[in-house]
């Protein structure tokens, strides 16, 4: 199976419909933690719903849109990264992430996002990638900062999640900014 090493014990791989059982088990383990800010748990209430979610996203990827990638730690799916929006013709994309508690604090999301940003900017010619995070989601905002992104602004009360209106911070990085950030970080980034 195709995968990219993130660390000795962690790998990034395309998350597809045939991973539904593994994905659902992961969602079950981290349902409340992940669901604080990410809709996957609410959209994956059972195995069939998880399979549908992954299948729908696979169709979007085939149309050069949304892409999902899982992160395995010691062989267990603990989270992932994604392009919830990908417009190659327009040169814009959005990147995001989710993790269950077992994957937190290891830098896996930052490394995985770096892989996706390299591909988006260097291979696909994307010019701008955004990061959207609830203002209260300090861990997510910290990833955007570690990736060298700039805070573009806050969309106030724009997102209803689990009955609560949330403010969304928009962070972004341009292709030349990413290349400069990557060069400054060196080969270990």
Description:
The protein has 189 residues and is of the alpha+beta class. It has a single domain (4-185), classed as 3-Layer(aba) Sandwich (Aminopeptidase). Helix content is 38%, strand content 35%. The protein has helices at residues 20-35, 40-43, 47-62, 108-123, 138-146, 175-185, and strands at 4-7, 10-14, 67-73, 76-87, 92-99, 128-134, 150-161, 164-174. The protein has an eight-stranded mixed sheet with strand order 1-2-3-4-5-6-8-7, sandwiched between helices. The protein is globular. The protein starts with a strand and ends with a helix. The model has no long low-confidence stretch (mean pLDDT 94).
Quick rundown:
This protein has helices spanning 20-35, 40-43, 47-62, 108-123, 138-146, 175-185; strands at residues 4-7, 10-14, 67-73, 76-87, 92-99, 128-134, 150-161, 164-174.
So, the CATH homologous superfamily? Gcn5-related N-acetyltransferase (GNAT)
Task: State the end-to-end CA separation.
Answer: 24 Å
Q: Please indicate the count of domains.
A: 1
Radius of gyration: 16 Å
- Low-confidence blocks of residues: none
Work out the helix count.
Answer: 6
**Average pLDDT taken over every residue:** 94
Helical proportion, percent range: 25-40%
The assigned structural class equals alpha+beta
| Largest sheet properties | 8 strands, mixed
How many strand segments? 8
Order of helices and strands: EEHHHEEEHEHEEH
Query: What is the global morphology?
Result: globular
Q: What is the name of the CATH architecture? A: 3-Layer(aba) Sandwich
> What name does CATH use for the topology?
Aminopeptidase
Q: Class, according to the CATH hierarchy?
A: Alpha Beta
Per DSSP, what share of the residues sits in E-state strands of 2 or more residues?
25-35%
Strand order across the largest sheet = 1-2-3-4-5-6-8-7
Protein name: GNAT family N-acetyltransferase
Pfam family, one: Acetyltransf_3
InterPro entries: Acyl_CoA_acyltransferase, GNAT_dom, Ribosomal_N-acetyltransferase
Domain N-acetyltransferase: 2-177
């Amino acid at each position: 199976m195709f995968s990219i090493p993130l660390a000795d014990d962690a790998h990034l791989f395309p998350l597809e419909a045939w991973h539904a059982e593994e994905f659902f088990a992961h969602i079950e383990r981290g349902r409340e933690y992940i669901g604080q800010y990410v809709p996957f748990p609410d959209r994956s209430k059972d195995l069939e719903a998880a399979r549908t979610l992954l299948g729908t996203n696979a169709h979007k990827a085939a149309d050069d849109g949304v892409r999902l990638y899982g992160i395995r730690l010691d062989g267990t799916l603990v989270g992932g990264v994604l392009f919830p929006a990908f417009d190659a013709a327009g040169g814009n994309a959005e990147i995001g992430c989710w993790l269950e508690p077992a994957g937190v604090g290891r830098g896996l999301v930052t490394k995985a996002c770096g892989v996706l940003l390299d591909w988006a900017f260097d291979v696909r010619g994307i010019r701008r990638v955004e990061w959207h995070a609830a203002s209260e989601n300090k861990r997510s905002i910290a990833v955007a900062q570690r990736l060298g992104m700039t805070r573009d602004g806050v969309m106030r009360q724009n997102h209803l999640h689990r009955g609560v209106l949330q403010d969304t911070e928009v962070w972004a990085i341009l292709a030349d900014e990413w290349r400069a950030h990557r060069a400054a970080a060196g080969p270990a980034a």
